[in-house]
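input
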Amino acid sequence: MNLIRQLKEVVISVLPIVVVAAVSSILLGTMDGSEIVRFLFSSVLVIIGLTLFLSGVDVGLLPIGNRIGSALTKSRSLPLMLAVALVLGIIITIPEPDVQVLAEQVREVNPAINATAFIWAIALGVGVFLAISLARTVLHLPMKIVILLSYIAIFAAAAFNDDFFVAIAFDAGGATTGPLSVPFIMALGMGVAALRQHDTESEFGYVALSSIGPVLAVLILGVVFPSDTVAAIGSEADNALSLGSLMLSKFADVGSSLLPLLAVCVLMQIFVLRMPRTETIRVAFGIVYAYLGIVIFFTGVEYSFSQVASELGAALSASNPVFLYLIGFILGLAVVLAEPAVMVLTEQVEDASSGKISKKVMLFTLALGVGLAVVLALVRTVNSLSIWAFILPGYLAIMLLMIKTPGLFSAIGFDSGGVATGPMSSTFLLPFAIGASSGSAYSSFGMIAMIAMMPILLIEVLGIIYQRAISKSEGGK
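output
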């Protein structure tokens, strides 16, 4: 377990945000000395928590995901693949840090929406669409057709929801592709993709489709259950807690969320995987690390980290919206440039394009997309604009461009929208937008949705440029 390497990656990811937030808050006078110390301490907890969690995922959860994917591939049984994908999709989503944070943010803004119901809707959506994504590969279904049909269903369901539910539904799609779910999804997907040799397109799209399911599921939740009905399902909001009490509550909450995943891992080990004793012990330690990491991470987020983001957004919005947009753009660049999943995707794209689309080009495209997405989300928040004014033309353009975009880049584009929405999107950028909201905080939701949408659009444009360059090159020979 390389904790030092993981710590460096997390520090690179979190530190730019901490520096920008601290310097901006000091200049605006929103934090005194004690609040700065509190924020820095919570930032340290976030860094330590993410480090332990990601290390635990690498050592404990990722090997199990790889082995399960391999076992499914060897079984050659489509019903078994779909059933396991459905169950795993549900149980890996429930403890996902990004999902938990988003659910808490939604509950705080609108207590009528129960966090438990919201999380279960998201988890069910991931499970169903993870199964669909595996079936797509096995049955040789075109990625573009599956995406088109999925978004037709999404916008049909969205027509029966209000702006707030539409915004949180699209946010949910981005939040699901976090550091816990992505390794499992990719492991299962790559194992099944091995059935289709020499088909590069089949290696992408699993994260994309898995992030579509939660959008549809939350929209259906909004149609079936009015807000006041959903509220009756869950519990009341917790009062503010001290650091010690907060951490103890997180131990209990995270433990109950991880228990189903742990149970499945144990059953798979007993009846299917049968890993050697040394590897089993190593995996067990990894799961413990992941558990402790999530607890510490959530404690840091709720202790001060998200609160400072909200206060900073409010101060910038009150002082000058131009500064708000500028800081937002910088934060967007910082988030995506340091996201580990983004680095992995850029390497995959470089390999899939035989080096013709370099990591630098991909990284610049994704960074520009996320920076612009944050600005657009803040423009909507400050002016209390409808979410439809952004997602309808955005996804209409995506669907039209998809006609001309090579299939590989369509899959890469939708995957990129998922990996760009890392832990910092839910824990800092969304609270930042909530603080900047001018009136109803409802308009602040949609930040994650924008971050998931804009990279798709720019990657499709990149794919069309790439295709034309290839055509000219071949025509000149």
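quick obs: The chain is about 80% helix and 0% strand.
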